[in-house]
Amino acid sequence: MADLGTVTLSEETFSYIKKVSFAWLSDGDGKATKTTEESYTGEIIRFVTVPDGVDAPDDNYGIVILDEDGTDVLMGAGANRDTANTEQVLATSLGCVANDQLFLSVTNAGAANKGTVHLYIR
Fold this sequence. Notes:
CATH topology: Jelly Rolls
Distance between the termini: 27 Å
Structural class: mainly beta
Shape: globular
Order of helices and strands: EEEEEEEEE
């Protein structure tokens, strides 16, 4: 799939936990997409959305992170994110990934708005 908007990926490893971060800037249609180059395996133990303080996304923007089978590893937890507040979802509401690249899709964020998604994988 073609990338939309601008997304910068970064990864940190802390012992056996990986933190994958997607810093995104939406396009004119309020979308941003990116597929990771790396493949990941493990349980998603935390999902965090951080809206940019100056160019925050529109209220109730959506985040989906798909595995290579097209399944949302967030189990729908990325819907209706807040424009002003950092929000998090813990492991009991999230899925897992098995040796797959991940595809981030941000929607309904408004034109040229920013945020960051953090995904913690164990």
